[in-house]
Write a structure and sequence with these properties.
α12 links the parallel β10 and β11. The longest helix has 17 residues. The strands form two sheets. This protein has an eight-stranded mixed beta sheet with strand order 1-8-7-9-10-11-12-13, sandwiched between helices. A five-stranded parallel beta sheet has the order 3-2-4-5-6, with helices on both faces. The protein has 15 helices and 13 strands. With 423 residues, the protein is α/β, with parallel strands linked by helices.
């Protein structure tokens, strides 16, 4: 494959920014399929100027200043997730840091590593957060098991009943697509802030990028985010066959931005080879085994790979996912971010540990506590254009990054970091 060099200005424009199973050896053979063309073209342009101006005005009406409720009490926050996906805790921590920066919480160090227990960090937060304004409810953690489709309707119904009858929650953090979908419905008056969804529009959580469709609901949207990532990746490597892995479900296609990938592929003329690996309704062990098997198959048919968001890709499983791709000299782009580049993906968009995302969610919550309707606040957000690059991976696949790529890289890793020890 020929590698291309790009002017720095073009790079910065393009690179804007989710019961015991079988082991890997016994995983079913993966099936490779070409991706069907997208039914409709997915827009990649950010919100128009008038919409942006309207959003700025709406946000400016509501201050960020910490305040208690009208009755003098603290704002009570609860949490709902579909399962234990590693980035959920990372984004929650980034949001907590944003609330600290705004003065809603007192400064405190947060645990560096993810808590291995379901709801572990939430319980830690409820016990350790100090604030004159906010309370993280000790009994406020809700989860549908670990992405268990049987538990999902039961847990969602119980939370909905609590919101409608007990009314002891002032805001719900809905983490992930399942949680957002379950709370995007009429009959809820409690504000809901949806976080960590690849595409809340495509997954049916919100009506559009600019309008949630429900007064109680807010979800961050990034129109065209993954299309811009792929445009950057294709501009550099000019691949003809891109490999992706995802679960073939509404949620799985949303997590992996499949429709947006198909639209970009159609515009640029490259083929997309796909492999389906489940993540809902299977054990963590099986999710990891199936996704690893898929990437091993993808390595034989693609000349570049886009690492999509999938529950089966963890810090422990990622080396096995990347090994066949690196061995065949394939460039890889991580949809998730720099944490996968640190472990051996070639490149991604650097998100500084979700610092900017956390601040956006914290400001949204602060404005809601100051009287804003969630629906009235801006949803569209764009990450700063910063690249993450792994030099050891580049060397191993035979790629010598030109100076303009290096200049556009905000985070450069000289070596591939080993996975953290399991806890």
């Amino acid at each position: 494959m020929k590698f291309w060099s790009l002017p720095l200005a073009l790079l910065l424009c393009a690179c804007s920014p989710a019961p015991s199973g079988p082991d890997a050896a016994s995983a079913p053979a993966a099936e490779i399929r070409p991706l069907a063309p997208a039914a409709s073209t997915v827009g990649t342009a950010p919100a128009n100027a008038s919409a942006v101006a309207s959003d700025v005005l709406a946000a400016s009406r509501w201050p960020l200043t910490p305040r208690r409720k009208a009755d003098g009490g603290k704002w009570r926050i609860a949490y709902y997730e579909g399962g234990q996906y590693r980035d959920y805790e990372v984004i929650l921590k980034a949001t907590v840091r944003g609330l600290m920066a705004l003065g809603w919480l007192r400064d405190m160090p947060l645990p560096a590593d993810n808590n291995p227990q379901a709801g572990g960090f939430w319980r830690w937060l409820a016990a350790n957060a100090r604030s004159d304004y906010l309370e993280f409810l000790p009994d406020g953690y809700h989860a549908a098991g670990d992405f268990d489709p049987k538990q999902r309707p039961v847990v969602a119904a119980a939370l909905l009943k609590r919101l409608q009858e007990r009314r002891d929650i002032d805001l719900v953090i809905a983490m992930g697509t399942w949680a957002g979908q379950d709370l995007a419905r009429p009959g809820i008056s409690t504000p809901v802030v949806v976080m960590s969804t690849s595409n809340p529009v495509a997954s049916g959580i919100v009506r559009s990028d600019d309008d949630s469709g429900f007064d109680h609901l807010h979800a961050k949207t990034e129109p065209g985010r993954y299309g811009r990532q792929l445009a950057l990746f294709h501009d550099i490597f000019r691949f003809r066959k891109l490999g992706i892995v995802y679960e073939d479900s509404v949620e799985g296609r949303s997590f992996a931005a499949v429709d947006e990938i198909a639209a970009i592929a159609g515009k640029r003329g490259f083929a997309v080879q796909t492999c389906h690996a489940p993540f809902n309704g299977v054990s963590q062990q099986e999710a990891e085994a199936r996704v690893t098997a898929c990437y091993r198959e993808i390595a034989t048919v693609a000349d570049a790979v886009y690492l999509t968001v999938h529950r089966g890709i963890t810090p422990q499983s990622l080396p096995g996912v990347l090994e066949p791709l690196i061995a065949r000299g394939l460039p890889t782009f991580s949809m998730l971010g720099e944490q996968e580049v640190r472990q051996g993906a070639l490149m991604s968009i650097a998100q500084l540990n979700y610092l900017y995302v956390g601040r956006f969610h914290a400001e949204t919550m602060a404005r809601i506590f100051n009287g804003a309707s969630p629906r009235a606040l801006p949803q569209v957000w764009q990450a700063p254009a910063k690249i993450a690059l792994n030099l050891e991976t580049a060397e191993r696949i035979g790629y010598n990054p030109p100076v303009d790529i290096l200049m556009a890289s905000d985070e450069i890793y000289a070596r591939i970091s080993p996975p953290p020890a399991p806890r």
